[in-house]
Amino acid sequence: MHSARKPSTVGEEHMEQYLGRKVSAVGCVELLRPFTLLAPIIVSLCIMVASYVYNGQTDDLSMLLWTTLLPASITMALLNAASNALNQATDVVSDSLSKPYRPIPKGIISPWAATCVSFILYFIAILLSTVVHQVFTIFVSIIAVFSVTYSLPPRMKDKLFINQLWIALPRGLLGILASWSVFGNPFHIVPLTIGMIAMLFLIGGSVTKDIMDSEADKKAGTRTLVNIYGTRTAAFIAFPFMFFPFTMIPLLIQEGVLEGYFFWLTLLIIPSYLIFHFMIRDHTKSRMLENTSAWSLMYITYFLFAFGFSLLTVFGSLAG
Questions:
Q1: What Cα–Cα distance (Å) separates residue 197 from each residue in 24, 96, 234, 268?
Q2: Is residue 108 part of a domain?
Q3: Distances (CA, A) of 227 to 80, 221, 224, 287, 296
Q4: Model confidence pLDDT, tens digit, residues 243-288
Q5: Cβ-based neighbours of 117, under 8 Å, separated by 6 or more
Q6: Angle subtended at Cα 245 by Cα 242 and Cα 249, rounded to the nearest 5 degrees
Q7: Whose CB has fewer CB within 10 Å in the chain, the N or C terminal residue?
Q8: CA distance 176 to 42
């Protein structure tokens, strides 16, 4: 049996220490899952721009980019990063089975270190939110509570049906209300309606994340629609939540709840149907995106929803 090789020179020892720190840094980046941070950044920026235009703000938007828009959007991204880190710190059993390449199963980062990183990020997010204003900070704090209780006791992630709501409510409704509050009244009918549509979509869409983890979640004691009812039945349960909120938009326009230019958001029924189709037919896993085609398309659809809402608000408000 060969003993572990020792560095032969001081320079080599320093190099190994450097590489060790570098690996840890890479592990931290993997822990935060950068791709998923695009959603809160893009969605929050889109909603904030829509709020700015809809509410007739006249301040220089280029100046607000540095003093308000970026701090607010970075805050939302930090919340998501903190949630990613905490979720991995508490999902060691399931991740070791379904995602052994993640930094904790690989031994690059310990669960305790990941938990510390998570709560540091939560603290920075709440602190940074105070740069915007108090209402925004309140929303950020509420979202953080949902995020923490999803992974830690009472650990809503393990509770069937509730786990879908615990993702959709903060990332859909509360996230949109928080972003709208930056320049407007978050309890106005428009952000409330758009937030409800987003929440309903995510109740269904977030089921996609459980397809690849079905067996691992079951062994870890996490009850999801997929591992209780099977992927096909879970897809049929999720489909109405993804599809019908967009079909309701014409009725909401007719009732005067939304302006007519939001009709184009109804077209999102097309990718919503495709998500449903992929949930049933395509379970191919992308290593880069760490999940299925249905999950990737769900994220893209949510991007399109936020971007479309913002674009229609800007052009509709200026035309009006």
A1: 40, 35, 20, 11
A2: yes
A3: 25, 10, 5, 22, 20
A4: 999 999 999 999 999 999 999 999 999 999 999 999 998 666 655 4
A5: 28, 31, 82, 85, 109
A6: 145
A7: N
A8: 11
